[in-house]
Amino acid sequence: MPNNLLVEGPEQGVQVFTLNRPEALNALNTELLENLAKALDDAEADREVGAVVITGSQKAFAAGADINEMAARDLVGILEDPRVAHWERIARFTKPIIAAVNGFALGGGCELAMHADILIAGENARFGQPEINLGIMPGAGGTQRLVRKVGESLAMHMALTGEPINAKRALQAGLVSEVCQPELTVEKAIGIARTIARKAPIAVRLTKESVRRANDMNLAEGLRFERHAFTVLAGTADRQEGLDAFREKRKPQFKGQ
Ligand code: CAA
């Protein structure tokens, strides 16, 4: 794996991916995005991985798509952009993703953070969709995911002015679940990921999918999906183990079955 993406673990069920292009504030060029998508594919197949953490540096989670690379693409280049497939692979990852965000999370960086299921932000984090300043617009889910996460008015404000919001505002808006000192974000994210990695994997997977579907479905469809998923879990050995362990006053030993 080239070193624009550092991979650690799995340790205690958690793999940590660190974006590592310090010379470009972790701008997501195609190679980095592809490496991340491939690493997630590997993590998907690895039963030792229960959850992953994605982070960047103290200064930047990621400052967006690589503007130099983007500038070299014309209309056909954008139409045939391989990045679309990489984004799709990241979006369909079935295990929980925790993002530990410090510094700039702009454009594609904010969009990547929004692919996470739980976001932990350092006090210095700045989330923004500044594409409008470049005469373009968000193209990796920024207009769609942002509105679902922070509501239309703030999403419009961010996407139309290009102005970022700070960590405190992101917390108020519901974009992030916790704000802490920048030095602690990764530790916190790993802690959350480890907690999740100890749960029953099939229940975790179906819970993630069910919560995600709340954005795509109306309430009646979503409730039906939840009920089906809940019913499927009745056939798992881990459900039996979870219920037995509670009644026997011991810790459950989940096996992903
Ligand atoms: N692409 C390529 N290089 C980038 C970059 C990006 N998105 N962001 C920063 N860099 C590079 C800078 O060019 C600079 O390189 P040099 O030292 O070689 O000049 C280096 O990273 C450090 O950046 P700055 O000197 O600009 O650092 P700063 O602290 O003064 O400013 C910043 C930080 C406000 C984040 C500023 O770098 C900036 O505005 N970056 C661009 C942010 C942006 O517009 N992102 C959206 C990109 S489009 C997109 O993301 C679309 C999509 O996904 C579909």
UniProtKB/TrEMBL annotation:
Coiled-coil regions, chain positions: none
Family matches, as InterPro entries: ClpP/crotonase-like_dom_sf, Enoyl-CoA_hyd/isom_CS, Enoyl-CoA_hydra/iso, Enoyl-CoA_hydra_C
GO-annotated molecular function: enoyl-CoA hydratase activity
Enzyme class: lyase
EC number: 4.2.1.17
Top-level taxon in the UniProt lineage: Bacteria
NCBIfam families hit by this protein: PRK09674.1 (NF007239)
Family per similarity comment: Belongs to the enoyl-CoA hydratase/isomerase family.
Protein name, as recorded: 2,3-dehydroadipyl-CoA hydratase
Lineage: Bacteria, Pseudomonadati, Pseudomonadota, Gammaproteobacteria, Pseudomonadales
